[in-house]
């Protein structure tokens, strides 16, 4: 399977395999539970511990959203892209590992390390995404981007299974470890997995498109960023796509991040939710790859339409949920399009931007993705509170997908 791709393409793809362990273990599953237990054992109320975690995520998101275009503009100079990627990768992996060595009662220090790990993870992804233009041709971008997401889903399940197995065995007292120690082992597994499979990218992926270095690169980068901000509306296709992306990716991200809370409101047990989360990752892998293959036959834009329409169906179906089986069906529907819509958005955008300014433009892509994560949860929360029904909150997200697809229709196909 992998022989059909070049060494550079394979090396780039495997970074998704490497970093996705962080997404599920640190962002979604193990760390939030570990932190909540640590904070509550230290006397912090459940409501306050949740609020502090929310503030932490918001701070990390805001920092990256602000730094992304600035750092990306500087990184467009020859030789800078790999340096910035290396810095954020080291920051993320290092502080992920450090989480295992912080005493569990130091919940505030845990949040500080988590913030730095999150900045490292998201920051490295800005430059990783931008490397897509360096490793492949425009004709192959959809397939390569989708393959990365597909292998990312597969790769994340392996350390996740190992970590969950250790934690469950510790909880059952089948191995002589406390749950705290077992969770710390999961953090080490994540860091090691991330670092090990990032090696091919460091060895084989290099910046092919760049701007020649010039005196005062930082000052000149700010000038270029200012010029880009003034001219972005002149690039009609790019501007419209970012606007469409802002709306539909907000719906996608909200469904991903709030699925556990929604399932809990339906009365689904935490064990069932973990199993559903695992199966969703497994099912999402081949579908992400399938989206890449189908995009070569039907175009990436048409497959984005398919993904958005499926998500609209998810929002409507969510309104009528009343059982665990319904939630399983909903999760599998999400799995069919979750990776595909993200992968094709990344490659579609990469085709629209000037290659020599990939870092700068992916910095803007990062801003739209980050700030989009504010509106969806707010819409769900307000609607759920007004109606007293979580299902109504999820149903309200259909508005974002409708706006997104209507704007996307106006975006011209990239010229290949």
What gyration radius follows from the Cα positions, in whole Å?
A: 21 Å
Q: List the helices and strands in order.
A: HHHHHHHHHHHHHHHH
**Overall shape:** globular
Number of domains: 1
Any idea of the CATH topology?
Growth Hormone, Chain: A
Mean pLDDT: 84
Brief description of this entry?
Helix content is 81%, strand content 0%. The protein has 16 helices and no strands. Pfam families: ATG22.
Task: Describe the secondary-structure layout.
Blueprint: H1 7-41, H2 46-75, H3 80-98, H4 107-130, H5 132-135, H6 141-171, H7 179-196, H8 199-204, H9 217-231, H10 236-265, H11 270-298, H12 300-318, H13 324-352, H14 358-387, H15 390-395, H16 398-408
Walk me through this protein's architecture.
The chain is mainly alpha-helical and 416 residues long. It has 16 helices and no strands. It is globular and about 60 Å long. The protein starts with 6 loop residues before the first helix and ends in an 8-residue tail after the last helix. Keywords: Membrane, Transmembrane, Transmembrane helix, Transport. Residues 237-416 form the Major facilitator superfamily (MFS) profile domain. This is MFS transporter. Pfam families: ATG22 (PF11700).
């Amino acid at each position: 399977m992998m022989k059909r791709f070049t060494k550079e393409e394979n090396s780039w793809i495997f970074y998704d395999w490497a970093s996705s362990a962080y997404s599920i273990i640190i962002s979604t599953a193990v760390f939030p539970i570990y932190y909540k237990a640590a904070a509550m054992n230290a006397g912090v109320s459940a409501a306050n511990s949740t609020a502090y975690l929310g503030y932490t995520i918001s701070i990390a998101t805001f920092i990256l959203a602000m730094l992304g275009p600035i750092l990306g503009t500087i990184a467009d100079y020859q030789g800078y892209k790999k340096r910035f990627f290396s810095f954020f990768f080291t920051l993320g992996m290092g502080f992920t590992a450090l989480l295992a060595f912080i005493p569990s009662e130091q919940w505030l220090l845990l949040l500080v390390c988590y913030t730095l790990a999150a900045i490292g993870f998201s920051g490295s992804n800005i430059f990783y995404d931008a490397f897509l233009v360096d490793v492949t041709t425009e004709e192959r971008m959809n397939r390569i981007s989708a393959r990365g997401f597909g292998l990312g889903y597969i790769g994340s399940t392996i350390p996740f299974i190992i970590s969950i197995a250790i934690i469950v065995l510790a909880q059952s007292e089948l191995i002589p470890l406390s749950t705290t120690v077992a969770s710390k082992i999961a953090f080490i597994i994540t860091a090691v997995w991330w670092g090990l499979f990032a090696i091919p990218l460091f060895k084989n992926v290099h910046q092919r498109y760049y701007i020649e270095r010039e005196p005062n690169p930082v000052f000149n980068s700010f000038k270029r960023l200012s010029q880009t901000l003034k001219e972005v509306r002149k690039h009609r296709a790019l501007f419209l796509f970012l606007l469409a992306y802002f709306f539909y990716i907000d719906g996608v991200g909200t469904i991903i991040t709030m699925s556990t809370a929604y399932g809990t409101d339906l009365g689904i047990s935490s064990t069932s939710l973990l199993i559903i989360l695992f199966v969703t990752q497994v099912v999402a892998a081949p579908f992400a790859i399938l989206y890449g293959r189908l995009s070569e036959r039907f175009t990436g834009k048409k497959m984005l339409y398919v993904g958005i329409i499926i998500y609209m169906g998810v929002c409507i179906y969510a309104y009528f949920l009343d059982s665990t089986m319904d939630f399983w069906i909903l999760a599998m529907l999400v799995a069919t399009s979750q990776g595909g819509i993200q992968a094709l958005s990344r490659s579609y955008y990469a085709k629209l931007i000037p290659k020599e300014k990939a870092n700068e433009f992916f910095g803007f892509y990062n801003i739209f993705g980050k700030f989009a994560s504010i509106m969806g949860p707010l819409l769900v929360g307000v609607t759920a509170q007004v109606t007293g029904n979580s299902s109504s909150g999820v149903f309200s997200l259909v508005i974002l997908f409708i706006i997104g697809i209507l704007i996307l229709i106006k975006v011209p196909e990239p010229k290949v």
